[in-house]
From TrEMBL, chain A:
Taxon lineage: Bacteria, Pseudomonadati, Pseudomonadota, Alphaproteobacteria, Rhodobacterales
PANTHER family in UniProt: INNER MEMBRANE ABC TRANSPORTER PERMEASE PROTEIN YDCU-RELATED, INNER MEMBRANE ABC TRANSPORTER PERMEASE PROTEIN YDCU-RELATED-RELATED
GO biological process terms on file: transmembrane transport
Transmembrane segments: 12-32, 72-96, 116-137, 149-178, 198-220, 227-247, 259-281
Protein name according to UniProt: ABC transporter permease subunit
Keywords assigned by UniProt, alphabetized: Cell membrane, Membrane, Transmembrane, Transmembrane helix, Transport
UniProtKB/TrEMBL annotation, chain B:
Name of the molecule in the record: ABC transporter ATP-binding protein
Keyword hit for Transport: yes
Pfam families: ABC_tran, TOBE_2
Coiled coil feature spans: none
Gene Ontology terms for molecular function: ATP binding; ATP hydrolysis activity; transmembrane transporter activity
Species: Pseudotabrizicola alkalilacus
Gene3D superfamilies, sorted: 2.40.50.100, P-loop containing nucleotide triphosphate hydrolases
GO cellular component: ATP-binding cassette (ABC) transporter complex
Highest taxon in the source lineage: Bacteria
One Gene Ontology term from the biological process aspect of the record: quaternary ammonium group transport
Residue ranges constituting the ABC transporter domain according to the UniProt record: 4-234
Phylogenetic classification of the source organism: Bacteria, Pseudomonadati, Pseudomonadota, Alphaproteobacteria, Rhodobacterales
Keywords associated with the record: ATP-binding, Nucleotide-binding, Transport
Length: 290, 353
């Protein structure tokens, strides 16, 4: 067949055209803002280079904001993984009726995206100081959550609220991984004399480890960046980084945008470190994968 | 008492009786194949022996001990699956050592046993590899080593060769048989490949619809199939209608020629027709001195398969298959030609059911 030079030249651009919207999006909303943040973190208000913003991060209040954020992210990721794993395992192996699985997956799909103001409102309306459940427990059973030390607008209140999207996210991601565990592995282990616990410890968990790790990292990042829920729930009173950040950049007279950039830069660094840790662990645990 | 016994095993899934009144006694060191079409319950029988399914009725003993209620992990059984059953996160050596490890055997003992097993399957240098770095045939050999390492009392194999290509399949089945004989381990092998079953088994159980149709040595199953199903499932079969001449002596007529069937007296009256069958190799090409009858057949197809040549031909109104050995100095008959075929009444198989 004779060569058609025109057709040759058209080919590549056409194939790349499909991902063009994605690339525009990535540049506009990911790369440019990130650059702005990184550059802004090293600028004074009039645009000259400085390290002062980073130095200013080293105050008690900001240090504790980072610490609380890390704790919150870590705790909700860990609990989300553990509880979500148990629920997914119950659905996949626990002999629950087939009819349970699809509704659970559908619900998880919805709940894992339930965040921000609606989620905060939902929790305030149920577990807040005058929430439905709080009042019901008090009037019907005489259980006073507040007197027992529970306060929705606190660290553990935020943990519970975050779990509402962390657990479903875990379920969504881990069910396919659990489906990937072959029946032959379990049966081969059993027939070789292994107990159920030995099978999980020596076979299933090592195989799932990369997925668990990846999901943990995702849940961690998910919680670490979840400003809207936290702010909507507690307002500025809880000291976590996203709220601090929000306070700096929303344009208050008191705000210092460049300190805001430095705060965000700190978040990027922490997320990047977490990702490196994740990738390193994952590579180590995946030597046996193709 | 036999080493492994299954008595009146039954398995019901929902409304479905998948295994019906299945009984079998296996001697120590015997190699038994369960042979049958897809869905006849072979795997279910094997899984009941392994302890993955509990029988709806009946019992299983191993070495005189009733294991019917025991869990899979306390039966001391070795099992090999169809494919992909190696633990992907462990090296070959760790896979083979697994059974000993969960039993708490010391490391030195495990290492020695792993080396011994890898040598047995001819993969001594591959202990450090992961399963994905092995070919399908190598993976199955490792699976065999893993199953044998803890010295099981019974070895169960569920179509372990079906995912492999033809050449590897043949060499691996011979290796399995050789190792089995070397270790003298009692073995049940599930397959739906009759050639595979016949070539390596001491005895074959032909299963059909959840029941054992016939149990016997390969020679017996092939030459004296008891049912039409067994006859058809094992090997190729030509069937003819013959007219009974003298039931007492087993004399029948086929295309005007007299033949004497081996199962006299016949359960039929003179003048009735009977269904009989003949293996392709019992229709012999040419005029042979020991033959009872000589018929003419018209060749319709020729398959040259190497050492064997399979002809299709019209014989006495039936389309038949006819096998003859290749001879370097004699080219096979051509399509459309007429050939003489010798046959004898003693080769006929009388089909009962
Ligand atoms: N867990 C189960 N639940 C319900 N039905 C089952 C179950 N396991 C097997 N069956 C049914 O029992 C019948 C026998 O299955 P089995 O796997 O024993 O057949 P098989 O002889 O091994 O077939 P194949 O050669 O295809 O492997 C099939 O009809 C199958 O659908
Ligand atoms: Mg099967």
């Amino acid at each position: 067949m004779p060569k058609q030079p025109g057709g040759q030249r058209l080919r590549l651009p056409l194939e790349w055209l499909g991902i063009l919207p994605f690339m525009i999006f990535a540049v506009l909303f990911l790369i440019l803002p990130t650059m702005k943040i990184v550059i802004g973190a090293f600028q004074t208000a009039d645009g000259s280079f400085t390290l002062q913003n980073l130095i200013d991060l080293n105050t008690d209040s900001i240090r504790s904001a980072y610490w609380t954020s890390l704790k919150l992210s870590f705790v909700t990721a860990l609990l989300g993984c553990a509880i979500g794993f148990a629920m997914a395992a119950a659905v996949v192996f626990g002999g629950l009726p087939k009819g349970v699985r699809n509704p659970l997956v559908t619900f998880s799909g919805v709940a894992s995206n339930f965040a921000g103001v609606p989620l905060a409102f939902a929790f305030i309306a149920t577990l807040g100081p005058v929430g439905l459940v709080t009042v019901w427990l008090r009037t019907e059973f005489g259980i006073n959550l507040r007197a027992m030390g529970f306060n929705l607008l606190s660290f553990w209140g935020l943990v519970i609220t975050y779990l509402f999207f962390q657990i479903p996210l875990m379920i969504l991601i881990i069910i396919p991984a659990l489906d990937g565990l072959k029946r032959e592995w379990r049966e081969a282990a059993a027939v070789l004399g292994a107990t159920g616990a030995q099978y999980w410890r020596m076979v299933a968990l090592p195989i799932l480890f990369p997925s668990l790790l990846g999901t943990f990292a995702l849940l961690f990042a998910n919680a670490f960046g979840a400003v809207a829920t936290a702010f909507a729930l507690t307002g500025p009173q809880l000291n976590i980084v996203p709220i601090k950040l929000f306070a700096q950049i929303r344009g208050d007279v008191l705000g210092n945008p460049n300190l805001g950039y430095a705060l965000a830069f700190g978040m990027i660094v922490i997320t990047a470190l977490a990702n490196f840790l994740y990738i390193w662990l994952r590579v180590r645990s995946e030597r046996w994968l193709k | 008492m036999s080493f492994l016994t299954m008595t009146h095993l039954e398995k019901i899934f929902g409304q479905n009786r998948v295994v019906k009144d299945f009984s079998l006694s296996v001697e120590k060191g015997e190699f038994i194949s369960l042979l049958g079409p897809s869905g006849c319950g072979k795997t279910t029988v094997l899984r009941m022996v392994a302890g993955f399914e509990s029988p709806s009725a009946g019992g299983i003993t191993i070495d005189g001990k009733d294991v019917t209620g025991l869990k899979a992990n306390s039966r001391n059984i070795g099992m090999m699956f169809q494919a992909y059953a190696l633990f992907p996160n462990m090296t070959v050596a760790d896979n083979v050592a697994f059974g000993l490890k969960v039993k708490g055997a010391p490391k030195a003992e495990r290492d020695a046993r792993v080396a011994e097993m890898l040598a047995l399957i001819g993969l001594a240098d591959l202990g450090g590899r992961f399963p994905f770095q092995l070919s399908g045939g190598q993976q199955q050999r490792v699976a065999l080593a893993r199953a044998l390492a803890p010295r099981p009392s019974v070895l169960l194999l569920d179509e372990p060769l079906s995912a492999l290509d033809a050449k590897v399949r043949v060499s691996l089945r011979n290796q399995i048989r050789q190792i089995q004989q070397e270790l003298g381990i009692t073995t049940i092998f599930v397959t739906h490949d009759q050639e595979e079953a016949m070539s390596i088994s001491d005895r074959i159980v032909v299963m059909n619809g959840g029941v054992a149709d016939q149990v016997g040595a390969p020679f017996e199953i092939y030459n004296r199939p008891r049912t039409r199903f067994v006859a058809n499932f094992v090997g190729t079969l030509n069937t003819f209608e013959v007219e009974v001449a003298d039931p007492a002596s087993g004399r029948v007529m086929l295309a005007g020629q007299g033949l004497t069937l081996p199962d006299a007296p016949l359960a039929a009256r003179a003048g009735e027709t009977l269904s009989v069958a003949l293996r392709p190799e019992a229709l012999r090409l040419g005029r042979l001195p020991d033959a009872e009858a000589l018929l003419t057949a018209k060749v319709t197809d020729v398959h040259f398969m190497g050492s064997v040549i399979r002809l299709k031909a019209d014989l006495a109104g039936a389309a038949v298959s006819l096998d003859t050995f290749n001879r370097p100095d004699t080219p096979p008959p051509v399509v459309g030609s007429e050939v003489e075929v010798s046959l004898s009444g003693r080769d006929f198989i009388l089909l009962q059911a």
